[in-house]
Amino acid sequence: MDKEKVVIITGPTGCGKSALAAALAAELNGEVISADSMQVYKYMDIGTAKPARDALESVPHHLIDIVEPDGEYSAADFRADALEIIREIRKRGRNVFIAGGTGLYIKALQRGLFEGPAADRALRESLWSEARRHGSVRLHERLAEVDPESASRIHPNNAVRIIRALEVYESSGRPMADFHREHSFRDSPFNAVKIGLMKERERLYRDIEERVDGMVGSGLVEEVSRLLGMGYGAELKPMRGLGYKEMALHLRGELSLDEAVSLLKKNTRHYAKRQIAWFGKDPETSWFSPERKNDIMELVKRCLN
Q1: How far apart are CA 96 and CA 94, in angstroms?
Q2: What 3-state class would DSSP assign to 130?
Q3: Residue 187 and residue 111: Cα distance in Å, rounded?
Q4: Residue 84 to residue 176: CA distance in whole angstroms
């Protein structure tokens, strides 16, 4: 059977993925699926850089504003929802455009999610207790002894991933790297054209700083204050996202506004750097500067025909 054709637009934050997807969809009879782990949350508009209202009204968009800020939404949820939406879009005879910078969402959609041993809550709590007592670095050293391949890919400060890798090993007796290798052979259900948007590094960082200033000028502090007032505490996962955690610190009096803005700019640059490293490993992605819209349009037209 022929695979469904989809267009995937990726790249680091601040490169114009949403705007390009909307423009392509408008021109090529398409609908847009957001692959952004923050845009799924309601009431969080400025800090998540949701598409402009005119774009949302001119082209159908999906998986935006679907979850309360205290709700759970995972890569597995995204995959299940996106697969169903893709089927519905194709039934309507329209083209599918997937746009976002959450690499795990895109990977999950194309390759599925690796299925290791089921979560062992008692073991996980024991590992978390050890991390709180001795720090994640000690757990990372332990992981390096039993699963050096996974340890080499996980930062010593990333307690969540370290603990999951140790949980997999101690539950199964096999390193997580083995499961990842088995999973990597899974074929994609799509015939995807992958467009990566990239700016020269100095320009990207400059644009990120201007974007942050624009968010603050558009009411980011007020948005975070409103969410806190609605009872969505700073400990919630989306409230720990970029823009929200920094402004929450400011609103609690722990940082001045200038300090919070400076921290947000720094954290966003670091996030963009991680995105570049993630997407840069994918040999299937064709990279373009955002100005090459005509070249991108011609490539996409050829691939959809």
Answers
A1: 7
A2: helix
A3: 6
A4: 29
Residue 79 and residue 108 in contact, taking contact as beta carbons nearer than 8 Å: yes
* Nearby residues of 19 by Cβ (< 8 Å), 6 or more positions away: 51, 52, 55
Distance from C-alpha of 186 to C-alpha of 113, rounded to nearest angstrom = 10
Q: What is the pLDDT of residue 182?
A: 62
> How many domains does the chain fold into?
2
**Domain limit, last residue, from 183, 202, 228:** 183
CA–CA dist 295, 289 (Å, integer): 10
Query: Residue for token digits 């490539």?
Result: 299
Measured CA to CA, the distance from residue 106 to residue 63 in angstroms comes to 13
- Residues 50 and 135 reside in one and the same domain: no
Of 48, 32, 52, nearest to 40 (Cα)?
48
Give the integer Cα–Cα distance in Å for 161 and 23.
Answer: 37
**Cβ(208)–Cβ(216) below 8 Å:** no
Sign of the CA dihedral with 129 first, then 68, 44, and 290 last: positive
What confidence tens digit (pLDDT) does each residue in 157-181 have?
A: 888 889 988 988 888 888 887 776 6
Give the residue from 163, 183, 203 where a domain finishes. 183
Name the pTM for this structure: 0.81
47 and 135 Cβ atoms separated by less than 8 Å: no
Element (H, E) at 141: helix 136-146
